[in-house]
Design brief:
The protein has 171 residues and is an alpha/beta fold. Helix content is 29%, strand content 19%. Strand 6 (130-133) and strand 7 (139-141) form a beta hairpin.
Length: 171
């Protein structure tokens, strides 16, 4: 798999980060083009965060990440900004599905103790289990595990790319 290992700088957020905090409603009235909107990523939640957000950063959050509306733009904008993964203690169900379908790795793990700017690493072990290594060197299991099919889909870039490459589910 080319997706792993995935390593980056932690950009730490709290609990209940809504889709409107990920990308503001007022910005979505102007356009839904992720390449334009990426400059406004998280602007209302952490005004200083969007500018220093770099490709390869990993969003780290608490519980209920992506709550609110079901708009896919809240997933496609982080991807356009170069974010490949969000690690949180929990996700809103629709956000989790939109993330996986669009190729954004959404991982559930204990994020306590991860500080802003820490280096984090996501990697698979020999049995296919996904682990989060924190800056302290602790290895935290990602739970529930992500099914091999989902890992393949993420590696392909999301559901549409996965289906195109296989000409459907049956191949």
């Amino acid at each position: 798999m080319t997706l792993f290992p995935l390593e980056g700088r932690a950009r730490v957020l709290g609990n209940d980060v809504s889709t409107d905090a990920i990308i503001s409603s007022r910005r979505k009235r102007e356009t839904i083009d992720p390449q334009v909107l990426r400059q406004y990523l998280l602007e209302d939640l952490v005004p200083s965060l969007a500018a220093p957000m770099r490709a390869g950063d990993v969003i780290v959050a608490g519980r209920n990440f992506g709550c609110g509306s079901a708009m896919e733009v809240a997933v496609t904008v982080p991807l356009a900004a170069g974010i490949r993964a969000v690690v949180a203690q929990g996700f809103a169900r629709t956000y989790l599905r939109n993330a996986m379908n669009n190729g954004l790795l959404a991982v559930i793990a204990d994020t306590e103790g991860i500080a802003e700017g820490d280096r984090v690493r996501l990697a698979l072990d020999a049995s296919g289990g996904l682990w989060l290594r924190t800056a302290s060197g602790a290895d935290v299991p990602c739970d529930p595990p992500i099914a091999p099919f989902m890992l393949d889909m993420l590696d392909a870039g999301g559901l549409v790319a996965y289906l195109r490459a296989r000409r459907g589910f049956g191949a």
